Amino acid sequence: MNKIVDILRDGGVAALPTDNLFCLAADASNETAVNKVFEIKGRSNSSAIPILIADFSDVEKYTINQPDVLELIVKQYWPGRLTIVLKRAKTLAPNISPEMDTIAIRIPNSDFIRSVIRDLGNPITGTSANLSGESPAISSEQVELSLGHKLDFIYKNTTTLGGLPSTVLDLSTMPARILRHGAVEKRELKSTLELHKLDLS
Fold first, then answer.
1. Do the domain assignments include residue 201?
2. Does residue 30 lie in a domain region?
3. Average per-residue pLDDT in the chain?
4. Which of 125, 135, 157 is nearest to 144 (CA)?
5. CB atoms closer than 10 angstroms to residue 186
């Protein structure tokens, strides 16, 4: 793990296994490293990249104006496959969500990834390890075929669970909105939000 953390600390990009797919991990506070992620994916740098954190206490470091009931909501889903959009703090690289004042954030259900984040001391980018427009890679072999020559490190001989991506829930404005349907169903989210007196459009 020390090697991975050193690569990320030096501004490198690594393909690492998360809950259900491989992600392109870079230090989310390093503007140069975030640019590399865009270049590797061949993705427009006007798009936003989600971040992964290790602990709920990190939310206050990287976001602002959180809903009062946020902790109660995420206790039901984190760590896991719910990504939440919140207002972004200035502690992140500005190009991680260019021309936006929000950031998509999640705690992954992976002890390994959370340990990497804690050792790095910063959140990491959590975008899928694939060229823009292609299907997300779920194995190190798929990453190697698609992006191997562009990366500083690939976590080898690993296959993830695959399946639906995380559901993306926007709590930066009210009523809340689902921006991407995924592993957490709308009816479940609606029920959770109503329990805490929040509406889902």
1. no
2. yes
3. 94
4. 157
5. 12
Question: How many C-beta atoms lie closer than 10 Å to residue 188's C-beta?
Answer: 13
Q: Write down the pTM of the prediction.
A: 0.95
Q: For a pLDDT cut of 90, what percent of the chain falls above it?
A: 86
Q: Give the mean model confidence (pLDDT) for residues 60-76.
A: 94
User: pLDDT at position 161, please?
Assistant: 86
Q: φ and ψ at 83, to 5 degrees?
A: -100, 135
In angstroms, the Cα distances linking 13 to 28, 114, 176 are: 11, 17, 33
Range of the domain at 129: 2-195
Task: Assess contact for 150 and 40: CB atoms under 8 A.
Answer: yes
Is the pLDDT confidence value at 46 over 80?
no
Q: Any residues with CB less than 8 A from the CB of 173 and at least 6 apart, and which? A: none
Indicate whether 114 belongs to any domain: yes
pLDDT computed for residue 45 by the predictor = 75
**Peptide bond connecting 175 to the previous residue in cis, omega within 30 degrees of 0:** yes
Alpha helix ranges (H) inside 14-53: 31-41
Mean pLDDT value across residues 10-18: 97
16 Cβ contact partners less than 8 Å away, ≥ 6 residues apart: 4, 22, 23, 25, 112, 113, 116, 155
Number of domains the chain is built from: 1
